[in-house]
Please model this.
Amino acid sequence: MIWAIGIDDTDYHEGGCTTWQANQLHNILISCGAKSIQRRLVRLWPFAVRRTRGNAAIALIMDISSDIQNECINAINTWFTKLVNDLKNNDVAKHARPGLIICKHEQFDESVYWNCVKSEYTDINKIVNDPSVIHYLTSDLGDDGLIGAAASISWKPSPESTFEAIAWRHISKCGSPRNIPQNSTNILENLHPNTFMNRDPTYDRGLISPRTPCPVLFGIRGWNYVDTLNALQDMLKLDWNEDIVDYAIHISNQCSDDHLEGIIEATVLDIPIRNRGGHIDLNILTLSGVIKLISFKEGGILNRKIGELLPGDKIHVLGLISPEGELHVERLKRVFSSPGNLIRPNCSCGGHLKSTGKSAQLKCKLCKNIVSSYWLSSRRISHDWVEPPSSNRRHLSTPVIRM
Ligand SMILES: [Zn+2]
Model:
């Protein structure tokens, strides 16, 4: 029988990592005789109250024959008890509230994923009473992890789903600096064009290794399985100056835009207001009324383009409505530009026409010609979609090049 095993909320500020924990459990189940079918890395609603950075849950899809099912359940229970004890000893801030759920593969309610990727979802009763549930585990730390765990097995990959290969370092290395081979980014960019998010061109900074004290040594994101695997194999050959203890490829909802409701068409109402720190507020008029658009300094070119908007501009926006009802912009396109600031026309001789001070008259400084007063407006250029630099993009957001 195929089991979908969902795991979430095992990480905390000082360490831990759900991908690593899930890999440990995966290997325990393999040693019990289970067969690995797929691993899924599922990102959830970016505004979730208890998210850690990235808000990711893992699903292991495994073939567990009936003769080893009891042994596997026992192994899972033992692993989970140890995980909870480790967290009690190490998670000082008591952040992690791990949850695990096992369901019959592809029979769990798909709506749970959509609720969890677009909103704060809390209906644990509905999750544990789903008819496909085989087993679930929580602890006295709290049962929040069950929600992400359930969402991860509720998600169904599609032909457009992306992949992430992850290589892990030894747990004792957590927190120490990673020795990222200098040529790694070039190899990926030049030899593996179907990988992405390798470098942030704005800051010319490699993105394959995280900066957090977690057991992930590096991660390679790719548009398909084969190219992700080939890139991973090239990375494994490089000198990382430490042991790579394990690696795996996950199929993922990254770059899916699943968290978004679709393109919002709007007209700019005000002049953009730049706040301390460079964030911008802007009121826009949409079909559902006036919304405050919020743009962050980290958005880079996106933030700059929003700063250039003028009342009357027509824009297309992709973004998330925050719990406060504000639109956090992720991508924007200016489809119509209202006329820019008014300027005086030039005289037919080429000289500058200036107001004479008398009403309704302009005078040329060169030829002294006098014409009736009027203004011209300047032409502004619209632009296609713009987005933040890759290091400041949400994992869930589709990059502009894939739109
Ligand atoms: Zn003139």
User: Anything to note?
Assistant: The first strand starts at residue 2 and ends at 8.
